[in-house]
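Quick one, probably user error.
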């Protein structure tokens, strides 16, 4: 049985002028087989979709200022601009209502209500949260993640494709996947974060021989 391997793929800096499917074919196409899984970092997919903004382009509303006072000083929601960016995606009043529900839920031992209702709040990368030159921007989560993964699979002939949110704290989540894949299984394979979104410029990873390891 062939050994499972994680192969980071080096690219140039990808921008909204690029299409993630074309970029994967350009930089990884020759290495992809029908036994492999193609993994794309979520921030790179979002950037190629133009889903980012500069903090100075945001007008912070009073709801964002109020909610920001109750957020621990870590993560995207600790920033006024990260909070405002999430509100533009989820709606100001929905965010505030979900925040209150989340606080009440914690009192009875139920966590995660806020992020379950406001998914973008957990997906946003605040300033310095992604690779240069986008480290001065707020990057949203990718749109139509499952659809993009299916397009990647069909265009490359891979066994499957995923879009993943992985960090160096051993937290991994699959945000989108092509049909027939188990997202939790893929997330466990990516747990040690093989991506390199900064100077490494390796936002694409091939899981070689995945089909053989089933």
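Nope, works fine. Designed sequence:
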């Amino acid at each position: 049985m062939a050994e499972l391997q994680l192969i980071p793929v080096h690219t140039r800096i990808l921008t909204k002028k690029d299409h993630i499917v074309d970029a994967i074919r350009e930089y990884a196409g020759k290495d992809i087989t029908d036994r492999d899984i193609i993994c794309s970092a979520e921030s790179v997919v979002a950037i190629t979709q133009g889903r980012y903004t500069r903090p100075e382009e945001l007008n912070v509303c009073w709801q964002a200022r109020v909610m920001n006072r109750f957020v621990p000083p870590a993560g995207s929601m600790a920033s006024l601009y990260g909070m405002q960016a999430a509100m533009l995606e989820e709606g100001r009043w929905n965010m505030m209502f979900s925040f209150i529900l989340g606080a009440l839920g914690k009192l009875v031992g139920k966590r995660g209500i806020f992020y379950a209702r406001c998914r973008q709040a957990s997906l946003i990368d605040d300033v310095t949260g992604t690779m240069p030159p986008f480290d001065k921007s707020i990057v949203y989560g990718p749109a139509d993640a499952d659809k993009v993964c299916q397009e990647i699979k069909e265009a490359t002939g891979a066994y499957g494709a995923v879009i993943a949110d992985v960090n160096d704290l051993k937290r991994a989540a699959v945000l989108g996947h092509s049909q027939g894949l188990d997202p939790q299984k893929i997330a466990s394979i990516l747990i040690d974060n093989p991506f390199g979104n900064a100077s490494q410029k390796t936002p694409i990873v091939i899981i070689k021989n995945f089909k053989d390891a089933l």
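Residues 52-139 form one domain.
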